[in-house]
Amino acid sequence: MMDIYSASNTELIRMIGRRFKTYRIRCRLTQQELAEQTGVSVPTIRCFENGRTTNVSLQVLLSLMRAVGQLEQIALLLPELPVNPKDVFEKKNEPKRVRHGK
Q1: How far is it, in rounded angstroms, from Cα 10 to Cα 57?
Q2: d(Cα 2, Cα 24) in Å, to the nearest integer?
Q3: Torsion over CA: 23, 29, 35, 37 (sign)
Q4: C-beta separation of 42 from 35 below 8 A
Q5: How far apart are CA 52 and CA 31, in angstroms?
Q6: pTM value?
Q7: What is the pLDDT of residues 10-48, one digit of tens each?
Q8: Average pLDDT, stretch 63-89?
Q9: To 5 degrees, how large is the angle CA 1–CA 55–CA 62?
């Protein structure tokens, strides 16, 4: 397994593409069937799976993950932060945004 923090974004995207191919095959979907199901072109799927493209949009990635039954994994990308007990005790509200002074 690669050290994800030392890997470049390009390397990580390529790794995801290779893994996705394994999921697609395990779901017994051809690239053509996947393309028809998701509206993503076969060349885009092929390039993603073979690591030749690193600019797959989030919308495309979500469509592909939905097609192979892995959409719930998106929740693991940024899990909800646990509530800080101190904040509950002091009844502090989470900031809505961060604004720095001029």
Answers
A1: 14
A2: 22
A3: negative
A4: yes
A5: 15
A6: 0.75
A7: 999 999 999 999 999 999 999 999 999 999 999 999 999
A8: 88
A9: 75
